[in-house]
Design brief:
The chain is α+β, with helices and mostly antiparallel strands and about 180 residues long. It has helices at about 5-105, 110-125; strands at about 130, 145-150, 160-165, 170, 175, 180-185. It has a 3-stranded antiparallel β-sheet. A 3-stranded mixed β-sheet has the order 2-6-3, with no helix packed on it. α1 runs antiparallel to α2.
Length: about 180
């Protein structure tokens, strides 16, 4: 096959272009060396992005921990509110049983009420609720609420609790209801 003359000049130009391209390739090689000079800049950018990613991850971990703590606090507050709502019911049940015992009432109704009271106090214990011990103990304003004073009787000391009008309860370290007491003076 014969080649056209039109194709031959292209071939010659191509050869010339290749010859002239050699100096440009040398320039291109210089350009490739230039990123090597930019390597510290690129490395600092990588370090910056890595530090940014680590900060974001640390922020997210802190956010997650905060949410876990908030959720636990909300659960404890809800539990405390539910227990507080039942305390007057327990008080009334105890008063009713005490009144009927004083009247000498016996029978299956009394036994049933005593079982219900026992079950309710067991549920409170299972939830971690404790009764605040008061009678005969020294007055403690952190868990007792003094509503009356009385002179010291035999064997009593000043500042001692002589009577309990309403039981106090605590959930862990948190007082749900202060014990309403009478204190000797």
């Amino acid at each position: 096959m014969k080649k056209n003359k039109a194709e031959q000049p292209d071939t010659e130009e191509t050869v010339e272009e290749k010859e002239t391209a050699l100096p440009e390739e040398e320039n291109a090689a210089d350009n490739y060396e230039q990123p090597a000079e930019d390597a510290p800049v690129q490395k600092s950018k990588e370090e910056e992005y890595l530090q940014l990613a680590q900060r974001i991850q640390a922020d997210f971990d802190n956010y997650r921990k905060r949410n876990i703590a908030l959720r636990a606090d909300a659960l404890a507050d809800g539990k405390a509110d539910a227990v507080k709502a039942f305390l007057p019911v327990i008080d009334n049940l105890e008063r009713a049983l005490e009144t009927e015992r004083q009247n000498g009432t016996e029978g299956s109704l009394m036994e049933g009420l005593e079982l219900v009271l026992k079950q309710m106090t067991q549920v409170l214990k299972d939830l971690g609720v404790e009764e605040i011990d008061a009678l005969g103990k020294p007055f403690d304003p952190e868990c007792h609420n003094a509503v009356m004073q009385t002179p010291c009787g035999e064997g009593q000391k000043p500042g001692e609790i002589a009577a309990v009008f309403a039981k106090g309860y605590r959930l862990g370290n948190k007082v749900l209801r202060y014990a309403m007491v009478q204190v000797t003076n």
